[in-house]
Every structure is written in structure tokens, then in C-alpha cells.
Amino acid sequence: MIPSILPTYNRAPMSFVAGEGAWLIEKDGRRFLDLGAGIAVNSLGHANPDLVAALTEQAGKLWHTSNLYEIPGQQELADRLVDATFADTVFFTNSGTEACELAVKMARKHWFEKGEDRFEIIAFTGSFHGRSAAGIAAAGSEKMTKGFGPLLPGFTHVAFGDHEGLRAALNDKTAAVIIEPIQGEGGIIPVPDQCLKGLRDACDAVGALLIFDEVQCGMGRTGKLFAHEWSGVTPDIMMVAKGIGGGFPLGAVLATEAAAVGMTAGSHGSTYGGNPLAMAVGNAVMKIVADDAFLAEVNRKSGAMRQGLEGLVANHPDVFEAVRGAGLMLGLKCKVPNTDVVKAGYDAQILTVPAGDNAIRILPPLNIPDEDISEALRRLDQVAASL
Ligand SMILES: *Cc1c(COP(=O)(O)O)cnc(C)c1O
């Protein structure tokens, strides 16, 4: 008999009843050190007092009005995002996959508005852009698309890192190229800065739009507000979600005025997107994260975590192969099956997240205290020893 919860997940047999900073408390009372942060979502830890205050204050006033009326929190958060980035305009969604839907629609409408027949979108193998029709068509992997055909047409896939293949695929019919500056689900695989620069130049040469999917790598995760800032290259359209809501469902599409030219009144919408509750939390997150001193701390903590992980790889060469990533978006490529490492972590009461390419992801809250980093490294050492 089918379970009452649609069985699309293989869940670990644990459930958490409370959280405090980087810690989760299981219903039996055990405390787990959370290096997954709800897959890079709880950017400021569990039960962060500033976010709890922002949400509960708004909850006592007004939850939802729909986008038929002005929502002051949207204006405030959109202004913050526009001030802090390449973007001129923002649309709020509830998730990353909805951000993908709009990014694709926006890119195609851009060309329609200009009277050009350009709809082809180039994406990369190993990528992840969400589970909607556009998201799985963009990622293109058999794991995500099999049985769901016919897929949304107009996507071309290039092998990650295949510069020749990209040059061959990109032409004056290309509407846009979509890429994660650091692949998350794919296994924490960064795109080198010079490749992002080359990609920007290649897009400019044929007039194609460039879409960055920063759903996982954005919002301070890499030690800059957005990961692409390390390269100095900017996109035309950017997808954001996960960390921006700190655990409240929130996403956004940021765009330049030129890229968004087709998105006129009535061309897109969302009942919930940017509702007052989400905006209260999103503004509270942005106030904390979009701050040079906060981001400097992320970089300092990243250095400590990374150094510890390098030591772990050196001490357990049969278990781990390499550390990669940036900021507090780190991956450990494993030699034993990555799911064995994640499971051994459960015994040591430490949570990590598996990813592609036999990696585990280390995505702690961005404000993880130094003593929790030390404790995480001790527990990961214990995990490796147990394997
Ligand atoms: C998680 C993720 C998405 C999808 O976000 P949802 O909120 O799960 O819909 C899209 N792109 C990337 C890079 C992601 O990590």
C-alpha cells in the first residue's frame, strides 16, 4: 500500500523537534551538529532570534494579501537586492524551481519582445535547477527526466567543462546560457573564475543572455553576497532561493532592465510570491548577511573549516580524497561511498548532505560559532575513523 506521504524521498529515520543555532534536537533528546542547514537554507542557524522576531511580529499583523495590492516589504527587499547587486529589478517566488521557471520565461520573452526567434537555452551536465518542467529540462539528467516526457523543448546540454562543446553549441539562435557558479547537487564543483569570464565573453559575442543559478551558492554562502562576485563577472538574470529565506520558503529572480524587457503587466505572477511573512524574514536575513563585516567572518570561518577538512583528508586518505568549494559551501570527495559517510555521521550525531560525484556537502549556518567548527572537525574525524 502506498504510504500516506508520497514516497519520493528515502528519509533517514530521525525527526527533529527543535533547533538552536547549528544544532538540531532529535525527539529522543539527542543533539546533532547540523552541517547541512536544511541544504544551505538555514543560513543564520535554527531559531535565530532576529528572524524569529521578524516573523512573529509580522505574523501578529498580516500574513497575506496577494499581489493585487502593494506589499511594502517587497519594495524594501527589492531595493536592498538592487542596491547590493548587478540587478535593476526583482520578482519574488516561493522556491528555487519557481525562480528557474521565471528565468527561462524571462529569457524567452526577452527575445520575443525584440522580434527575434530565439528560444534555445544551453545548460550543463551535472547541473541542478529544480524539479519543475523547466528545471528538469534544464538539468537534463536521466535521473530527473526519465518517464516525465515529453520534456519542455529548447534545451541543449554541454558537458561541464567542455569549452569546445560550448563554443559549438552557442550561436545567434541561443536565447540564454544557464549555469550554477558552483554546482551544488552535482558535488560542490566550482566553475573557475576565468571560465565564468570566458562564458560571459562568449555570450556577449552572440548576444545571448547569461543566467546564474545562485539558489545554493548565493546569499553569503561563498563569503561574498553572491558567488559570481569572486569572478567580477555579472549575469543578466539570476535565480536566488534557499538561504535568502533562512528557512522560510522564499526565492527571487533578479535581472537587468534590458533582460527583463518582456516582463510587462500580466506576463507573470504568483499568489504567494513575496507575501508579507516571507518579506519580513527576507529583509531580516538581508540586513544581516549583506554586510562586509558579516561576510568577512564567513571567510574567516571558511578558512578554519577548510584547513581542518584538509587535515582530515590527509589523516584519512582511504576515506576522503579532496576538499573543494568556497566559503562555507564545501565538499569532501569521498573514496568510500558518500552515503556510508553520511550514515556514519548519524551515529556520531553530525549531519552532512550527500551530493553527486561521490561527495558530501558541508553547508553549515553562515554564523556557525568557532567552537562548533572545532566540534564538527572532531566528529568528522571520529566518522572517518569508524569507516
Ligand atoms: C535547490 C536548488 C534549486 C531548486 O530549489 P527549490 O527551492 O528546491 O525548488 C535550484 N537550483 C539550485 C542550484 C539548487 O540548489
From TrEMBL:
User: Which E.C. number(s) belong to this protein?
Assistant: 2.6.1.11
- Residues bound to N(2)-acetyl-L-ornithine: R131, S270
Q: How is the cofactor bound, as the UniProt entry phrases it?
A: Binds 1 pyridoxal phosphate per subunit.
Instruction: Provide the coiled-coil residue spans.
Output: none
Which pathway features in its UniProt record?
A: Amino-acid biosynthesis; L-arginine biosynthesis; N(2)-acetyl-L-ornithine from L-glutamate: step 4/4
Where is it localised? Cytoplasm
Q: Name one GO molecular function term.
A: pyridoxal phosphate binding
Catalysed reaction equations from the record: N(2)-acetyl-L-ornithine + 2-oxoglutarate = N-acetyl-L-glutamate 5-semialdehyde + L-glutamate
The entry marks the following residues as binding pyridoxal 5'-phosphate, namely G96, T97, F128, D213, E214, V215, Q216, T271
Q: Please give the residue positions where the record annotates the modification N6-(pyridoxal phosphate)lysine.
A: K242
GO annotation, biological process: L-arginine biosynthetic process
Q: Name one Pfam family in it.
A: Aminotran_3
Q: Which GO terms describe its cellular component?
A: cytoplasm
> What cofactor does its activity depend on?
pyridoxal 5'-phosphate
- Report keywords, A-Z: Amino-acid biosynthesis, Aminotransferase, Arginine biosynthesis, Cytoplasm, Pyridoxal phosphate, Transferase
Reading the lineage from the top rank, the first entry is: Bacteria
Query: Which PANTHER family does the UniProt entry name for this protein?
Result: AMINOTRANSFERASE CLASS III, SUCCINYLORNITHINE TRANSAMINASE
Question: Its family?
Answer: Belongs to the class-III pyridoxal-phosphate-dependent aminotransferase family. ArgD subfamily.
- Other remarks on record? May also have succinyldiaminopimelate aminotransferase activity, thus carrying out the corresponding step in lysine biosynthesis.
Subunit field text: Homodimer.
Q: What is this protein called?
A: Acetylornithine aminotransferase
